[in-house]
Amino acid sequence: MDILEMTDLEIYELGTKKLTEQMGTTYATQFLQKCKPRDYDYTADRHKWLANDPDILTMAKQIQEEKALQAKEESVKAERIAAWRNGLLELTDIEIYELGFKVLADSLGAYGLLRFITQHFKNLNAEQPIDQSQQFQSDSIMQMMKENKLPQD
Q1: Closest CA to 95 of 82, 80, 108
Q2: C-alpha torsion angle, residues 11, 16, 18, 21 (rounded to 10)
Q3: 76, 94 in Cβ contact below 8 A?
Q4: How far is CA 62 from its chain centroid?
Q5: Element containing residue 139 per DSSP (H, E)
Q6: What are phi and psi of 16, to 5 degrees?
Q7: Cβ atoms within 10 Å of 107's Cβ, excluding its own
């Protein structure tokens, strides 16, 4: 499988297949429904952040604290994913979102993930599939998204 030689539709099909295999139909559908472009003005926030820049020592301490916090959060996430895989709990919306992106990044790589997301946004904005001659394996997921129905596993 060479991502560089695949079409956008083939990448999208592979991505939805991997999501469904690793997350199940319900969570894959929820991930795809939540994965939408957002309006965000980075420059406005950037100006706010730059106005309050701390000194170098404070920034170094903040970075160290942030790394320790991230390590702890990753440990908790791993425990929750393991519990979910064992059927002991349900995932939150943000966990579904993070897990979906991790599945896609691991399966498709950075370039494939970008092409998958681009194709997904095209599909969200289209009245009909981009290429009617090619049948998606993910047709059932796309249909459920359009009807706003989520299957029960």
Answers
A1: 80
A2: -160
A3: no
A4: 28
A5: helix 139-147
A6: -65, -35
A7: 20
Could you give the angle at which helices 93-125 and 8-34 cross, rounded to 10 degrees?
130
Residues 128-146 have pLDDT tens digits of 454 443 444 455 555 555 5
Amino acid identity, position 103:
V
Q: What is the pLDDT of residue 43?
A: 78
CA 74 to chain centre: 17
Which of 34 and 83 is assigned the larger pLDDT? 83
Q: Are 29 and 153 in contact (CB under 8 A)?
A: no
What gap in Å lies between CA 85 and CA 88, rounded to an integer?
8
Say how far apart CA 100 and CA 97 lie, in whole Å.
5
CA 110 – CA 80 distance, rounded (Å): 25
